[in-house]
Inverse folding.
């Protein structure tokens, strides 16, 4: 008595023939290629997300430093004004101290030497915000490319199981589109990035 599973396998191989076997191999290869690009897209997406999160922390630190400089600047300006108004006009020491506080306050506004004045900190924070926003845009675009590639893998799997070639064709179109999206985001092609935003 023969094994029923072996009989079904033999019958399927006789009905399917050599042609189906080649198509199945092509679909399997297509799934493998799409899975490879899916893994790359996911990896690049996580890298962009990590960069955006790291930059967000640095931006927050920079704006906090900016606020601290603003507070110190206000204190020194207030002290200088108080000293000027309360001191006797001929009090040279008080006038000298007021001038020193004003100079310190001015240095807090802009300090190209240390690059830590309010003006420089603001420029630095805005530059980092731009880079962070770009990284977030890349992250979302990589996620979209990954989704399209995942859908193509699902359709290819359906084609493999059902032998309906319409699914294989749709899978190929989606997979190639997903790979083009991935490469466009990876190489920062403006047209692709604008489509995915």
């Amino acid at each position: 008595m023969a094994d029923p599973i072996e009989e079904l396998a033999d019958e399927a191989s006789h009905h399917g023939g050599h042609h189906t076997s080649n198509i199945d191999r092509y679909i399997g290869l297509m799934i493998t290629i799409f899975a490879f690009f899916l893994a790359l897209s996911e990896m690049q997406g996580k890298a962009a997300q990590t960069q955006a999160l790291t930059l967000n922390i640095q931006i927050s630190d920079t704006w906090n430093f900016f606020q601290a400089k603003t507070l110190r600047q206000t204190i020194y300006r207030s002290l200088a004004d108080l000293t000027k108004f309360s001191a006797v006009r001929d009090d040279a020491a008080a006038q000298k101290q007021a001038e020193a506080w004003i100079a310190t306050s001015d240095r807090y506004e802009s300090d190209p030497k240390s690059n830590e004045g309010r003006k420089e900190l603001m420029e630095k924070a805005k530059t980092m915000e731009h880079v962070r926003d770009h990284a977030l845009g890349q992250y979302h675009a990589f996620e979209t490319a990954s989704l399209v590639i995942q859908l193509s893998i699902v359709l290819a799997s359906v084609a493999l199981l059902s032998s309906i070639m319409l699914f294989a064709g749709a899978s190929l179109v989606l997979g190639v589109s997903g790979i083009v999206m991935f490469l466009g985001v990876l190489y920062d092609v403006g047209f692709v990035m604008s489509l995915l935003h």
Notes: The longest helix spans residues 4-86.
